[in-house]
Amino acid sequence: MAFHFIAILSDYIGGQRIGWHYSSESKLDKQVITEFMKKVEECGHTQLGIHKLSTDSVEWSSVVKKDSFFEDILVTHDADLIVRQITASKKLNVHDVVKFILSIAPVTHLKLQKLLYYAYAEYLLKTGRKLFSEPLVAFKYGPVVEEVFYTQRHNGSSIIDYKEDEMFVVSTDVSLPASVVRVIGADDGVAATDCIVEVLMRYKGHDARDLVDKTHQHGGPWDKVYVEGMNRPITDDVIKSLHHLVV
């Protein structure tokens, strides 16, 4: 008989579950598991799914054969590799913020782009740091994150149909979308969450056209850099100095 210890991390950057797999033909060494968990704890608050089971082999294929739940997991025996992945997952990207917004307030693509700008600006002005690394650029209808433009433009003027695949149970009667937990658990996640929620509350009554008009205010960040067809970047310095004109 073989014994298995599996720690699964949800990798929201790559959209793929990955896991650390430790197995032994005899009793699992508690010291090995303790050292792994210590490394994970040093990364800060991290959501891990822990599983223990026995099969007839130490091979990963025997785990998958026993339970199809583990079928699509990328596993490694290298604890340091998992720790590096956890560290990388602490940094938000724009798609994390997109999922957060859509899980709370389904909107059109055009409004989504404006909310991304306002959330980014809010966080930048309060912390001096970037909410996400992808650049904002000046399109015809206001600030846009190009990567989101190319993944969401097919929605046109329709409300984006987004549904969370996973939920985290907080208590017997409260669950949170996985995307919300992802943002809260990131570096400075509480501040990021506060800024995004504040923006959603402030602009929930505005339609996309209202927000286009707001971001087009004379002298604002978009107006400062826009040149037709150029898609010029809206830098952090420009936002810091001119954002107050478009609030």
In short:
This protein is an alpha+beta fold. 44% of the residues lie in helices and 18% in strands. Helix 5 (109-127) crosses helix 8 and helix 5 crosses helix 9 (208-215).
Provide an overview of this structure.
The protein has 247 residues and is an alpha+beta fold. The chain has 2 domains: 2-89, no CATH class; 94-245, no CATH class. The protein has helices at residues 30-41, 60-66, 79-89, 94-104, 109-127, 146-152, 178-184, 189-203, 208-215, 221-225, 236-242; strands at residues 2-11, 16-24, 48-55, 74-76, 137-139, 142-144, 167-171, 174-177. The strands form 3 sheets. It has a 4-stranded mixed β-sheet with strand order 3-1-2-4. Helix 4 (94-104) crosses helix 7 (178-184), helix 5 (109-127) packs across helix 8 (189-203) and helix 5 (109-127) packs across helix 9. The radius of gyration is 22 Å and the shape is elongated.
> C-alpha Rg, in Å?
22 Å
Uncertain runs are: none
Largest sheet: 4 strands, mixed
Overall tally of structural domains: 2
Termini gap: 64 Å
Q: Helicity, in percent? A: 40-55%
Outline, from the CA principal axes? elongated
Structural class: alpha+beta
| Record field, number of beta strands | 8
| N-to-C SSE string, H for helix and E for strand | EEHEHEHHHEEHEEHHHHH
Q: What's the total helix number? A: 11
